[in-house]
Amino acid sequence: MRFHHYALRTERAYWQWIVRFLRHHRIPGTAGSAGWRHPRSLGITEVASFLSHLAKDRHVAASTQNQALNALVFLYGEVLHQPLGDLGTWARAERPKRLPVVLTREEVHRVLAAAEPELQLPLQLLYGSGLRLIELLRLRVKDVHLDQRFVIVRAGKGDKDRRTVLPERLVEPLRDLLRQLKIQYQADLAGGFAGVWLPHALEKKYPNAPREWAWQWLFPTAGWVCRPEESGEPRWRHHWPEEVVQRGMRRAVQKAGVAKPATPHTLRHSFATHLLESGADIRTVQELLGHQDVATTQIYTHVQSRPGIGVRSPLD
Question: Which candidate in 157, 211, 238, 255 is catalytic?
């Protein structure tokens, strides 16, 4: 999977589906390693049976079943070199049409105001730039262009780069943040800082890059990842874990009294919906969001506060 440049998240997801597939077909009543069957001894029939089990017994969503299918297709096609071919008939999970949760503008402002001080800027950036949570956390100093008012998302979904808008009102808060980070960065260098993680072995090509200012995280953790007194390893900084923002968003929604199951990704949905309500072209919104197909973006036309074009209810 790394040879094919798959994302680490995809690698982990595929691996757990392969394990679940093998566990499902383990010979019952056996102890230890005796009951496991090598995937070479399994095939189309067992794969179809497992996928049907997910739909009928586990009641998984269609996207979950598709992920399991993709994992097994990859296993047999790319690892074992035994392509599955036509799986025949198997139970497919239903794919009902669901509308995303979207906050009104007033609800967004209430949630952002209710957020803890250290989380207000990250949440404002999620909403103001339409970022995915992992895209926000992976932002580096070099990706934020304050003078040109845009943000560059590196290796987003589908391993694609894109540019999106940077809100005017966040320019000065971001300047202040960068000044604070610069002080911390200089202290790190003086304290034996090893650097930050770089993708695709860039640290071998550019050995000094992990310690350069441009490559530092925009939202770094407060402490070191490795401590020399404990492990003898170099000291690194990582970006915030996703749980920090997710839990902070949950607390802000509760404090704001918003009766919706809003998550950090809801701010991205709200960004797209509010742009369309303001008259933005759907192709422009598609580019800002990084959607491959405009059909994905069109879902937001169904959740606008006033759906339809100038339509009024007969009751009104």
Answer: 157
Q: What superfamily would CATH give domain 8-79? A: Tyrosine recombinase, N-terminal domain (1.10.150.130)
- Asked whether 166 and 146 are in contact (CB, 8 A), the reply is yes
The architecture (CATH level 2) of 105-302 comes to Orthogonal Bundle (1.10)
All residues at 6 or more sequence positions from 305 whose CB lies less than 8 Å from its CB, including other chains: 104, 273, 277
Active site residue 268: yes
110, 237, 239, 291: the catalytic one is: 291
Q: Establish whether 291 is a catalytic residue.
A: yes
- As a dihedral over the C-alpha atoms of residue 81, residue 82, residue 84, residue 85, rounded to 10 degrees, the angle is 90
Residue 233 — very low, low, confident or very high, per pLDDT cuts 50/70/90?
Answer: low
Give the per-residue pLDDT at 305: 61
pLDDT in tens, 104-147: 999 999 999 999 999 999 999 999 999 999 999 999 999 999 99
Q: What is the pTM of this model?
A: 0.74
Q: Read off the pLDDT of each residue in 46-58 and give the average, rounded to a whole number.
A: 91
Q: Is 132 a catalytic residue?
A: yes
Residue 204 among the catalytic residues = no
Where does CATH 1.10.443.10 sit in the chain? Answer: 105-302
Which H or E element spans position 195? Answer: strand 193-195
- Whether 127 is catalytic: no
Q: Which of 92, 132, 154, 255 is catalytic?
A: 132
Residue 306 confidence (pLDDT): 59
